[in-house]
Amino acid sequence: AEKGDFLALDLGGTNFRVLLVRVRNGMRRGVEMHNKIYSIPVEIMQGTGEELFDHIVHCISDFLEYMGMKGVSLPLGFTFSFPCQQNNLDEGILLKWTKGFKATGCEGEDVVGLLKEAIHRREEFDLDVVAVVNDTVGTMMTCGYEDPYCEVGLIVGTGSNACYMEEMRNVELVEGDEGRMCVNMEWGAFGDSGCLDDVRTEFDVAVDELSLNPGKQRFEKMISGMYLGEIVRNILMDFTKKGLLFRGRISERLKTRGIFETKFLSQIESDCLALLQVRSILQHLGLESTCDDSIIVKEVCTVVARRAAQLCGAGMAAVVDKIRQNRGLDFLKVTVGVDGTLYKLHP
Fold this sequence. Notes:
It is a single chain. By secondary structure, the chain is an alpha/beta fold. It has two domains: about 5-135, ATPase, nucleotide binding domain (Nucleotidyltransferase, domain 5), CATH 3.30.420.40; about 145-345, Hexokinase, domain 1 (3-Layer(aba) Sandwich), CATH 3.40.367.20. About 35% of the residues lie in helices and about 25% in strands. It has helices at about 40-45, 50-65, 110-120, 135-145, 200-210, 220-225, 225-240, 260-270, 275-285, 290-325, and strands at about 5-10, 15-25, 30-40, 75-80, 85-90, 90-95, 130-135, 150-155, 160-165, 180-185, 335-340, 340-345. The strands form three sheets. The chain has a five-stranded mixed sheet. It has a five-stranded mixed sheet with strand order 10-9-8-11-12. β8 (about 150-155) and β9 (about 160-165) form a beta hairpin. About 35% of the residues are buried. It is a peripheral membrane protein.
């Protein structure tokens, strides 16, 4: 079994994690993890590739110092949660940025190479990049340590994606028919062909059109953290224009893209939150609300969050059903790893 110290990088959203993973076997088998979270400023997300990878390496350096491990040389696993073409375990060609990233000079390039170049530019430490994986795959593998029946990975964070174990005979890109292989679905892009048009609303269209990648990742834009607050903001603007909210007055702040953060949505939507607290969140956004306004805003947040959950559930049901059909079973018990937590699905 694996054992020893490993570094891991997790890049897939507005926050970026550096981790030290200590894998032990024998009597005290288990995994011990230390991590630190670093933010990625918008100007770096949308600057040059060199700036982005220099920032990442700067964070690794800070982390090694923080752990008292300056100058070590460790194997490194790179969780990189963007669409990639993967020809080798240690190579991932970035196909396109998603989730608000726009760093130049990266698309079409091997991200492991970009990382190694940035490490060499710093001339401070050397790391052996042994693998690049997608976060859905990483989640499934992590949960697989606890439950060998874990065969699906799901991420619902800044973006959304899933992976599952497919029969090799169905994998056209790889030789051989024996066994199974993990397939990263990139399900965030479901609907880009227009097949979701019947369930998309005018608010989804507005959010999509003003995003950095219009027409792309349409399913993700109905589900994930980067977009839910923006959907709510568009609905609140529409209701206000119709005179149903805030006495028909749209504040300048409400007109600002991204002002209604997804964390406000989940705060407002949480069961225990009293309407006074909803009003104080709205006040923070420069919105003078009545009690009726707060009730409507809470309902909007609930509907948007519930729809996201239902769309996610529908996607997951389709994946589980595909596995069931693959195996010619009447029903299937499957375990799903969601952001590192195990969920057992029973028919």
